[in-house]
Structure formats: C-alpha cells, structure tokens
Design goal:
Layout: H1 2-18, E1 21-28, E2 36-43, E3 53-57, E4 61-66, E5 72-77, E6 81-87, E7 93-100, E8 106-111, E9 117-122, E10 127-132, E11 144-147, E12 157-163, E13 166-171, E14 176-182, E15 189-193, E16 205-210, E17 216-221, E18 226-233, E19 236-244, E20 255-261, E21 267-273, E22 277-283, E23 290-297, E24 303-308, E25 314-319, E26 324-330, E27 337-344, E28 348-352
Amino acid sequence: MKLKLVILVFALNIINLFSQDVPLYIGTFTNEDSKGIYHTTFNTETGQLGTIELAIAIDDPSFLAYSPNRKQLYSAHKNGFISSYNVEENGQLSLLTRVKSEGKGACHIAVNETGDKAISSNYGGGTSALLPIANDGSLLQASQVFNKNSENKKSRAHSAFFYKDELYVAYLGKNAVSQYKLAPNSDTYELSSKAIVDVSGNPGPRHFTFTKDGNYVYIINELGCSISAGKRTSNGFDLIETVSTLPKDFKDKNSCADIHLSEDEQFLYGSNRGENTIAVFKRNAKTGSIKRIQNMSVHGDWPRNFTLDPSGNFLLVANQKSNNISVFKVNTSTGKLSFLYDVKTPTPVCLLF
C-alpha cells in the first residue's frame, strides 16, 4: 500500500512538473471596453487559457515588462507615463510608482538584466528615457533622455533593448536601430552607432530581437513589411539581408509589428497587420539568414503583439481590432503554426509571460 502511495505521489509530481499553469498578463488600450491590465493563466501542456480577470484598472497600459525576479511589472502608457507595480500572489497588481516617460506616446518599456534600469520609448515625442529603478522596484525620474528629433522630423522611438553594457533603440522615423554603450565608471550611455545596419528606402524599424549570444539581430520593419538580419563584427554589425514578410501576390496595405525568435533560435516569427498573419521563417544558425516558410492567419484583425509560451509549444497573438487572443500550436520540428482556438479579450495589445 505504501509503495502504491509513493508511486502515486511521484506520478503527480511528474504531471505537475510538465503540466503547469503559468501567469499571463495582458496589456490593452482602454478606449473601448477595456479597463486596464488583465491577468490569466496558461496551461503549458494543454494550451488552455484560464479565466481572464482585471489585475488593475489603469489607463492604456499598451506594453508590459517584468523585473528580472518577476516580483514587479512595468507598463508604458501613451499619455506619456511609465508605471510600476508589485505582483501579488493572487495575480493582482498594486501600483508602486508612476513617472513621466519624458515624451508623448510611450509605447514600449524594457528592463535591464540586473533590474536597476528601465528604458522608455516614446513614439509621439520621438525620445527615449533612461529610468533608474530603486531596490523595491519603484521607478525614479529619468536620469538621461535620448532625443534624436530633428527640426523637421520626429525620430519615432518605438522599442529598446539592453544587452550587457549596450543599449539599442529602434527609431522608426530615422530608419535606424541605434547603439549606445555604457560609459566607463558611469550610469550614462553614449552613442556608439547611429545605425547598426544600413537599410535603404524608408523601412521604418519597429521592434527587434537578438540571439542569446548577441551575435545576430533581426529587425522587423513596419513600413517596409520586411525583416532585416544583421551579424555582429569587430566594428559593429553587417547587414546580411532584408526579407519580405509577405507573399509576392499580396498587394493590399500592410504594416508589420512584433518579432520573436523560438527558444532554440531555429525559427523566427513576425506579425503582419493588414494581411493579418504571423510570418514564419526558418533560420540558418551558421549564416544568420532566414527563409519564409509560412504565413498563418491570426484569426483576427491587427496582430499588434504576440508571444511564445515558456514551453515553446504554443504561440499566442493579441489581435487589437478584433478583440481576441488567438492560440496556436507550434510544430517544434518545422516551426509551423496550427490554429487551436481564440478567446474574446477587450483591445489586447501586449502579452507577457
């Protein structure tokens, strides 16, 4: 009898190890039925979303980021503020601080790996601001503001990313991802490269992602409907190629939005708003080049943001205009997606595991 009990307990532990409900936060625009940031759970074995509940009522929390220890959460607001929250045990959020993003239309927030700095990207104001983070996770006023606006043109800062002592910012209006490096013995970043890769025309870089070793970068271009791949060199980065996210026969209006690498870095995913698809690419790990292998309908309208779940077996899409989250199964051998189901959600624009 004791042996059977031990076997049962062992079996239950194995099930819990491989089948767990993980938290998922949903950022929204609150100009319709949404009231703020929502919270749910996602089962990484079955692919099922739990009940979606309001985590905190707040205005237009359009992009979300965790602290490294996941005890705090941060959100960007298009009215020019950045908020920080404590994550409660029940999934609710309690407001810690709310500071100016130092520009209109805050659309992105990123936190460095040590959790003591955040960077806001302000699409409307065209600026980015470095925000110190206190030990309790609360935000302090900006310590540095990057302003690449010219007299006649906004820089349209759209996203940013910390990598070791480097900081990268995508300026859609300047058609560049710029690189900044931390000055010696200082908390100040200095411009190192105005544009890490040279791109022609007016592609409008929006979001970007690096491989884990930092040697390859992939930039999704909102206006050019393409992805530019770059390889790190001793002098910066070299452009490998720029590949369309669309089939040749697609002639309607489209703008790209989000981009993510699979955990094994064999596949790359980008969202098309207009064609309303996720473009799937096979990645060559030796050369960094990519080849489009699928355009999967998002079963919704305007996929502003999407994410891969922690297991890598599922991909979830936030469809802003159709008010739904679509869930896809990922074939981890081929990278291709198959649609499972969708759930109604008010104006979802960011998904954070």
